[in-house]
Design goal:
This is Phenazine biosynthesis protein PhzF like. This protein is an alpha+beta fold. The protein is about 20% helix and about 40% strand. The protein folds into two domains: about 130 residues, Diaminopimelate Epimerase, Chain A, domain 1 (Roll); about 160 residues, Diaminopimelate Epimerase, Chain A, domain 1 (Roll).
């Protein structure tokens, strides 16, 4: 029997026991795909990451991301949290971490810039690995059924429900106000029906709902449900937040824009999270899309294999 080390970190928060939990296996060499999946299921967090030596020596590491039910090509909070954990190490597979990391993932290369407070690593900023992809449109009745809401709760003032991605696909829909958003509850049967109606090769149907605050349209409250991945509700979803930010900016009439969004999530779960998304637009074309946030170490330990 051998043991492997792990740490857990709370992501998109500066307060311990808030934000989104993440387990990081800092050296996953020797683990099989089956073992990685079993470990992710044992933790039961929305994602667990497994760090391996890079295939290209110019990069920092290769990272695999597992939900409790399967591997995903990219996710936001796992990259922010893994970058934070690696940034605290003196060495990563024999090399110094420095201020920037390059993580190889199934969705592509993820650039990570470490954030510091008082000289100490406090979080990370990541760039989305893929350009914005939009479609197909999703019928409002399916979205409403998945969220146990009346279709009238949905708003089409900015866009109709649609699937979008910058590395991992989500269905996004705007809710009329924050009070109605707080009433949403996942209906697993409806999710199965939506999954059959709108199949996705690399993942199952998941739903990212949001409402814009009245005083500031770029301050957003969000919730994410993925019960088919055994994630009833996610406290913070960086990949969906990045895709939403990119999509909303892409729909602006202005040809040039520099927009920063503050996205609150996890409030209804009593795990409040704050995600910062920055999107640039030049001559009508989207540029960089980044996600950033703070992190806090929570636990350290070992797993017997």
């Amino acid at each position: 029997m051998t043991s492997i080390s792990f740490v857990t970190v709370d992501v998109f928060t500066s307060e311990r026991f808030a934000g989104n939990q993440l387990a990081v296996i800092t050296d996953a060499r020797g683990l099989s795909d089956r073992q990685m999946q079993e470990i992710a299921a044992e933790f039961g967090y929305s994602e667990t990451t497994f760090v391996l030596p890079p295939e290209n020596a110019e990069n920092t590491a290769r990272v695999r991301i597992f939900t409790p039910t399967g591997e995903v090509p990219f996710a936001g909070h796992p990259n922010v949290g893994t970058g934070f954990v690696l940034g605290l190490q003196e060495e990563i597979f024999g090399k110094s971490a420095g201020g920037h990391l390059r993580l190889e993932e199934k969705a592509g290369l993820v650039e990570v810039a470490l954030r510091r407070k008082g000289g100490i690593v406090s979080g990370a900023r990541i760039l989305a690995p893929q350009p914005l992809a939009v479609g197909p449109a999703i019928d409002p009745e399916s979205v409403a059924a998945c969220a146990s809401l009346d279709p009238d709760a949905l708003s089409d003032r900015n866009h109709a429900p649609v699937r979008i991605s910058v590395g991992l696909a989500f269905t996004v829909a705007e809710i009329g106000d924050i009070e109605m958003l707080s009433k949403a509850r996942p209906n697993v049967s409806a999710f199965h029906e939506a999954n059959a109606r709108y199949p996705l090769a690399e993942d199952s149907f998941s739903l990212f709902l949001y409402a814009r605050t009245r005083d500031n349209p770029w301050h957003i409250r969000a919730r994410m449900f993925a019960p088919l991945d055994n994630v009833i509700e996610d406290p913070a979803t960086g990949s969906a937040s990045a895709a939403l930010g990119a999509y909303l900016v892409s729909r602006l009439t202005e040809a040039d824009a520099e927009i920063e969004l503050a996205i609150e999530q996890g409030v209804e779960m009593r795990r409040p999270s704050l995600i910062t998304v920055a999107v640039s637009k030049r001559n009508g074309a989207l540029g960089e899309v980044s996600v950033s946030g703070d992190c806090v170490m929570a636990m350290r330990g070992s797993i017997d294999i």
